[in-house]
Amino acid sequence: MDRSLRNVLVVSLGFLLLFTAYGGLQNLQSSLYSEEGLGVTVLSTLYGAMLLSSMFLPPLLIRTLGCKWTIVLSMSCYVTFSLGNFYASWYTLIPTSVLLGLGAAPLWSAHSTYLTIMGSTHAKKAGKAGKDVVNHYFGMFFLIFQSSGVWGNLISSLVFGQTPTQGAIPEEQLLSCGASDCLMATVPTNGTQRPSQELIYTLLGIYTGSGVLAVLLVAFFLEPVRDNQQRSEGEKKPSSFWSTLLSTFKLFRDKRLRFLVLLPMYSGFEQAFLAGDYTRSYATCALGIHFVGYVMICFSATNSLCSELYGRLSQYTGRIALYALGAVTHFSCIIALLLWKPNPDQLAVFFVFSGLWGMADAVWQTQNNVLFGVLFEKNKEAAFANYRLWEALGFVIAFGYSTFLCVNVKLYILLGVLCLTMVAYGIVEYLEAKNLTRPLAVRREAEETETQTKM
Question: Which of 152, 298, 350, 451 is most buried by a 10 A CB count?
Answer without folding.
Answer: 152
